[in-house]
Amino acid sequence: MYFYQTELGIDRITGRRVRKKARKDLTGRPFKTAMAANRELTRVKREYYQVNSYANYQMTYREYMEQVYIPAYKTEVEESTFAVRQGAFVQFCDRFGSKQLRDINIEDVQNFRTFLLTDTDEGGAGYSQSYASLVFGMFRKTLDRAVSLQYLDFNVSKRIKAIPKSKAIVPYWTANEFKAVIKQIYIGNFLENLYFVMLWVYFMTGVRVNEGMALWWSDIDLDNKHLRVHHMLYLKSRTDWTRKDYTKTADGKRTIALDDTTVDVLRKWRERQKQAGLGHDDDFVFTYDGLPMIKSTLARVIQRYATAAGVKPIQGKGLRHSHASYLINEFNVSVLVLSKRLGHSGPDVTLKNYSHMWVGADTAIVEQMEGNIKVDTAEQSSVKFNGNQAIKNLSELGAPPSTPPESRKDA
After folding, report:
1. Residue 145 covered by a domain
2. Where is the Tyr recombinase domain (predicted)?
3. Is residue 385, in this structure, part of any structural domain at all?
């Protein structure tokens, strides 16, 4: 049974806190989802503040965040998303918490924007432009909601220019760099064999890090040579995790074809897992003890073997970019095929993230174009030009001298 419960502030007459709690909406229907309960809560708050706006006139930004924004936001996003965003909310409250919501001014917002973009040695946050853009955008949304709930008449942060996102180029490995890395791995060791399989599958399939960590053997059909991506892993620790039955985007659910070598690598790994009592349909593909792997482990594996190979270390997501580069540069794959394989919503998303990888990819096409059409033009004009004499003279400029009719006849 879903319900909402909230405090709407202090009653100016009685001095008591105004509390509201309900399990049904305005029409008397019980809430069937948390979203329905939150929708009704929003309506109740809006109506209350329209009538009693004076009650919370002096509400501080911290009170607003803790009593209104954060509880509502928590019902609207995934638990993993909320966990990631909490740090930013704490930062907002530390900076603006003691100020009354209505007293936040343009100068306050501008100073915060500057702080986000300033290096740490100069007293700033030291964030990258991309992350600063994300944090500043989140702050603006907190004030957007305050406007929609009629706590504020307008969003003062909208009078300050947003922080534009910078297009980050994710480092990746070329095919030769990848070969150098896996050459450092001794698969005779069970744990190193696991690390090899992880790097190989990520490089050869382009799955997202989280998608790969969530793979069970039931997701892989070795006989028909394909891998099904249908899950994400929400992981607080190796022993506290949830396997979600969806991916980052709706189009992320997909089936990826596997090459024969990858099938062989996976088949041998499953046999080895079975010797350790693993390898069942509901076992993780990437595991040595039945528990899922974590992102930091993949990062350490990459760092360790990249250093041994004398190759630049990359992030886990860099393996996804490495796969894209491999298909583009080795096989000149089309944008549409790559988009489907990576689970993008459309080719436009693929081009937005990987267009720089096609630089120079048309060299092979130019080589094929060479000599395909030979220069073979007419010996004399077959059209008659009408117009002034200047145009006629220009059309004949540089033309070889014509042979008089008499000369052609005598010849």
Report:
1. no
2. 168-368
3. no
